[in-house]
Write a structure and sequence with these properties.
Length: 226
């Protein structure tokens, strides 16, 4: 964008089109910012609830593990834990929020029968099963919490970026464009006034010249008649 644009009608039209486009972009960015902020607070509330649930679940899981350790001994519980087979199935999808891609992570930890958990039911007990089930539930919550906190970080960055763009348009770009259009408009008005004055001056001179010529012709005719 030129700092000193040519004061022409075409340049004025272009400046007004830029202002119109900038205002439209400003409106869309404000809408995007508002939607992102609403989504941020919604996910933030969910994250707080998940943290509370996870804290409760972890307390229950550690309590169940403490009972299992007291019944079987720490070494036996660790050996059983090392023999567990299989990793949780994690699926990742993408959620689009006003152009921002937020990963949606889901962990599938099914309640497997005793024979499919990887450790022998001989030598173990219901206390081991309760501890395993409690930590499986905690794992699902951890993944859900990771998803929400990752979404919160992405939303914060996008909100800040959108706010900077909104402010740049509102306080820098739009005032500059409006000032430019106003300057071109004033200069065009000045040029029109100058042109009008110049045309009036030329017309006045032409009228005076015509009058002088007419007067000279009349005087010549009078002399000829005398």
């Amino acid at each position: 964008m030129a700092e000193n644009p040519n004061p022409t009608r075409m340049e004025l039209i272009k400046s007004r089109e830029r202002i119109k486009l900038a205002r439209k972009g400003h409106k869309l960015l404000k809408q995007k910012r508002d939607v992102l902020i609403m989504e941020f607070f919604k996910i933030l509330s969910r994250a707080q609830d998940l943290r509370d649930e996870l804290n409760t679940q972890m307390a229950e899981a550690y309590k169940a593990m403490a009972v299992a350790q007291a019944h079987h001994g720490v070494a036996e519980v660790e050996a059983i834990a090392m023999s567990v087979e299989g990793d949780p199935s994690v699926s990742i999808n993408v959620k689009n929020v006003m152009g921002l891609k937020i990963p949606s992570i889901k962990a599938e930890v099914s309640e497997k029968p005793l024979m499919e958990r990887g450790y022998s039911i001989i030598g173990s007990s219901a206390k081991i099963d309760e501890s395993a089930a409690a930590f499986s539930s905690a794992l699902v919550m951890i993944v859900r919490l990771a998803e929400t906190e990752n979404a919160i970080r992405k939303l914060i960055r996008e909100i800040e970026k959108t706010k900077r763009r909104v402010n740049a348009l509102e306080y820098v770009m739009l005032p500059r464009l409006e000032s430019q259009a106003l300057s071109i408009s004033f200069r065009l008005q000045e040029m029109e006034r100058d042109s009008f004055v110049m045309l009036k001056t030329i017309k006045r001179k032409l009228d005076r010249a015509a009058e002088e010529k007419e007067y000279a012709a009349a005087m010549k005719k009078r002399k000829s008649a005398a």
